[in-house]
Amino acid sequence: MRFEVLVEVSLRPGVADPQGQTIERSLPTLGFAGVHGVRVGKAIRFELEALDEPAARAEIADMCDRFLSNPVIEDTRVTVTATDPAR
Amino acid sequence: MRFEVLVEVSLRPGVADPQGQTIERSLPTLGFAGVHGVRVGKAIRFELEALDEPAARAEIADMCDRFLSNPVIEDTRVTVTATDPAR
Protein backbone atom coordinates (compact mmCIF):
# COMPACT_ATOMS: atom_id res chain seq x y z
CA MET A 1 0.00 0.00 0.00
CA ARG A 2 1.07 3.54 -0.63
CA PHE A 3 0.74 6.28 1.96
CA GLU A 4 1.09 10.04 1.93
CA VAL A 5 2.90 11.06 5.08
CA LEU A 6 3.24 14.41 6.82
CA VAL A 7 5.70 14.63 9.70
CA GLU A 8 5.53 17.90 11.60
CA VAL A 9 8.65 18.43 13.70
CA SER A 10 8.22 21.17 16.31
CA LEU A 11 10.28 22.40 19.22
CA ARG A 12 9.00 21.07 22.56
CA PRO A 13 7.19 23.48 24.86
CA GLY A 14 9.77 25.37 26.90
CA VAL A 15 12.49 25.20 24.26
CA ALA A 16 13.32 28.70 23.05
CA ASP A 17 12.19 29.44 19.48
CA PRO A 18 13.99 32.62 18.31
CA GLN A 19 12.57 32.32 14.78
CA GLY A 20 9.02 32.23 16.12
CA GLN A 21 9.74 35.13 18.49
CA THR A 22 11.09 37.22 15.61
CA ILE A 23 7.95 36.56 13.56
CA GLU A 24 5.75 37.41 16.55
CA ARG A 25 7.57 40.72 17.12
CA SER A 26 7.44 41.65 13.43
CA LEU A 27 3.76 41.03 12.77
CA PRO A 28 2.32 44.03 14.68
CA THR A 29 4.65 46.41 12.81
CA LEU A 30 3.16 45.06 9.56
CA GLY A 31 -0.38 45.66 10.79
CA PHE A 32 -1.24 42.12 11.91
CA ALA A 33 -2.66 42.16 15.42
CA GLY A 34 -3.85 39.41 17.71
CA VAL A 35 -1.14 36.84 16.98
CA HIS A 36 0.42 35.00 19.92
CA GLY A 37 2.58 31.99 20.59
CA VAL A 38 4.29 31.69 17.21
CA ARG A 39 6.34 28.48 16.91
CA VAL A 40 8.21 27.49 13.78
CA GLY A 41 8.84 23.85 12.95
CA LYS A 42 9.50 21.66 9.96
CA ALA A 43 6.92 20.00 7.74
CA ILE A 44 8.34 16.93 6.03
CA ARG A 45 6.14 15.26 3.39
CA PHE A 46 6.86 12.04 1.56
CA GLU A 47 5.34 8.93 0.02
CA LEU A 48 5.86 5.59 1.71
CA GLU A 49 5.36 2.04 0.44
CA ALA A 50 4.41 -0.29 3.29
CA LEU A 51 2.42 -3.44 3.93
CA ASP A 52 -0.34 -1.77 5.91
CA GLU A 53 -0.96 1.30 8.07
CA PRO A 54 0.45 -0.14 11.34
CA ALA A 55 3.65 -1.10 9.48
CA ALA A 56 3.83 2.37 7.94
CA ARG A 57 3.33 4.06 11.33
CA ALA A 58 5.98 1.89 12.98
CA GLU A 59 8.52 2.70 10.25
CA ILE A 60 7.72 6.42 10.46
CA ALA A 61 8.02 6.46 14.27
CA ASP A 62 11.44 4.80 13.97
CA MET A 63 12.51 7.31 11.26
CA CYS A 64 11.40 10.22 13.45
CA ASP A 65 13.34 9.00 16.48
CA ARG A 66 16.52 8.11 14.63
CA PHE A 67 16.76 10.65 11.86
CA LEU A 68 14.05 13.22 11.26
CA SER A 69 13.89 14.80 14.70
CA ASN A 70 15.91 15.31 17.84
CA PRO A 71 13.65 13.77 20.51
CA VAL A 72 15.44 15.66 23.29
CA ILE A 73 14.15 19.05 22.11
CA GLU A 74 11.59 18.24 19.42
CA ASP A 75 8.14 16.68 19.20
CA THR A 76 6.70 15.06 16.08
CA ARG A 77 3.14 14.80 14.82
CA VAL A 78 2.54 12.24 12.11
CA THR A 79 -0.35 12.23 9.63
CA VAL A 80 -0.71 9.15 7.42
CA THR A 81 -3.16 9.01 4.51
CA ALA A 82 -3.59 5.93 2.33
CA THR A 83 -3.58 6.80 -1.36
CA ASP A 84 -4.87 4.74 -4.27
CA PRO A 85 -2.36 1.87 -4.60
CA ALA A 86 -2.92 1.85 -8.38
CA ARG A 87 -1.72 5.44 -8.64
CA MET B 1 -12.86 34.32 18.95
CA ARG B 2 -9.58 32.53 19.35
CA PHE B 3 -8.16 30.22 16.69
CA GLU B 4 -5.30 27.76 16.56
CA VAL B 5 -3.58 28.17 13.21
CA LEU B 6 -1.18 25.92 11.34
CA VAL B 7 0.45 27.37 8.23
CA GLU B 8 2.42 24.82 6.23
CA VAL B 9 4.82 26.52 3.82
CA SER B 10 6.16 24.15 1.15
CA LEU B 11 8.21 24.60 -1.99
CA ARG B 12 6.05 24.54 -5.13
CA PRO B 13 6.23 21.45 -7.33
CA GLY B 14 9.18 21.80 -9.69
CA VAL B 15 11.26 23.92 -7.30
CA ALA B 16 14.41 22.02 -6.32
CA ASP B 17 14.47 20.85 -2.69
CA PRO B 18 18.06 19.86 -1.81
CA GLN B 19 17.17 19.21 1.83
CA GLY B 20 14.45 16.77 0.82
CA GLN B 21 16.75 15.09 -1.69
CA THR B 22 19.42 14.64 0.96
CA ILE B 23 16.94 13.01 3.33
CA GLU B 24 15.67 10.74 0.53
CA ARG B 25 19.21 9.62 -0.34
CA SER B 26 20.12 9.00 3.31
CA LEU B 27 17.11 6.92 4.35
CA PRO B 28 18.00 3.68 2.46
CA THR B 29 21.48 3.66 4.01
CA LEU B 30 19.78 3.74 7.45
CA GLY B 31 17.57 0.80 6.54
CA PHE B 32 14.39 2.70 5.64
CA ALA B 33 13.07 1.54 2.29
CA GLY B 34 10.09 2.63 0.21
CA VAL B 35 10.31 6.38 0.79
CA HIS B 36 9.88 8.67 -2.21
CA GLY B 37 9.27 12.30 -2.98
CA VAL B 38 10.60 13.83 0.24
CA ARG B 39 9.86 17.56 0.47
CA VAL B 40 10.79 19.72 3.44
CA GLY B 41 8.80 22.79 4.32
CA LYS B 42 8.03 24.94 7.33
CA ALA B 43 5.25 24.41 9.85
CA ILE B 44 4.27 27.67 11.54
CA ARG B 45 1.81 27.45 14.43
CA PHE B 46 0.26 30.33 16.31
CA GLU B 47 -2.85 31.58 18.08
CA LEU B 48 -4.95 34.29 16.49
CA GLU B 49 -7.66 36.53 17.93
CA ALA B 50 -10.22 37.44 15.26
CA LEU B 51 -13.89 38.32 14.93
CA ASP B 52 -14.88 35.11 13.17
CA GLU B 53 -13.40 32.40 10.97
CA PRO B 54 -13.68 34.28 7.63
CA ALA B 55 -11.89 37.26 9.21
CA ALA B 56 -9.21 34.95 10.60
CA ARG B 57 -8.71 33.25 7.23
CA ALA B 58 -8.47 36.60 5.42
CA GLU B 59 -5.85 37.88 7.86
CA ILE B 60 -3.86 34.64 7.59
CA ALA B 61 -3.97 34.67 3.76
CA ASP B 62 -2.65 38.23 3.81
CA MET B 63 0.09 37.30 6.31
CA CYS B 64 1.12 34.34 4.13
CA ASP B 65 1.37 36.45 0.97
CA ARG B 66 3.21 39.36 2.55
CA PHE B 67 5.39 37.80 5.20
CA LEU B 68 5.29 34.09 5.95
CA SER B 69 5.94 32.73 2.47
CA ASN B 70 7.44 33.65 -0.87
CA PRO B 71 4.49 33.09 -3.25
CA VAL B 72 6.83 32.87 -6.24
CA ILE B 73 8.37 29.58 -5.09
CA GLU B 74 6.24 28.49 -2.13
CA ASP B 75 2.71 27.22 -1.53
CA THR B 76 0.85 27.49 1.76
CA ARG B 77 -1.75 25.25 3.37
CA VAL B 78 -3.69 26.79 6.21
CA THR B 79 -5.52 24.89 8.95
CA VAL B 80 -7.70 26.95 11.30
CA THR B 81 -9.28 25.47 14.43
CA ALA B 82 -11.53 27.47 16.73
CA THR B 83 -10.61 27.03 20.37
CA ASP B 84 -12.74 27.72 23.43
CA PRO B 85 -12.99 31.55 23.59
CA ALA B 86 -13.10 31.32 27.40
CA ARG B 87 -9.74 29.58 27.48
Structure description:
The structure is a homodimer of 87-residue chains. Chain A has one domain (2-83): Mth169, Chain: A, CATH 3.30.1280. Helices cover 32% and strands 40% of the residues of chain A. Chain A has two helices and three strands; from the N terminus they run βαβαβ. The first copy, chain A, is elongated. The mean pLDDT of chain A is 94. The A-B interface holds A 6, 8-10, 20, 23-24, 26-27, 30, 32-50, 59, 62-63, 66-68 and B 6, 8-10, 20, 23-24, 26-27, 30, 32-50, 59, 62-63, 66-68. Strand 2 (35-49) of chain A pairs antiparallel with strand 2 (35-49) of chain B, so a sheet runs across the interface.
Q: What's the architecture of chain A in CATH terms? A: 2-Layer Sandwich
CATH class of chain A: Alpha Beta
Helix-strand makeup class of chain A: alpha+beta
Q: Give the strand line-up of the largest sheet of chain A.
A: 2-1-3
Low-pLDDT segments, ≥5 res of chain A:
none
The dominant shape of chain A is elongated
* Oligomeric description of these chains: homodimer
Largest interface: A-B, 35 and 35 residues
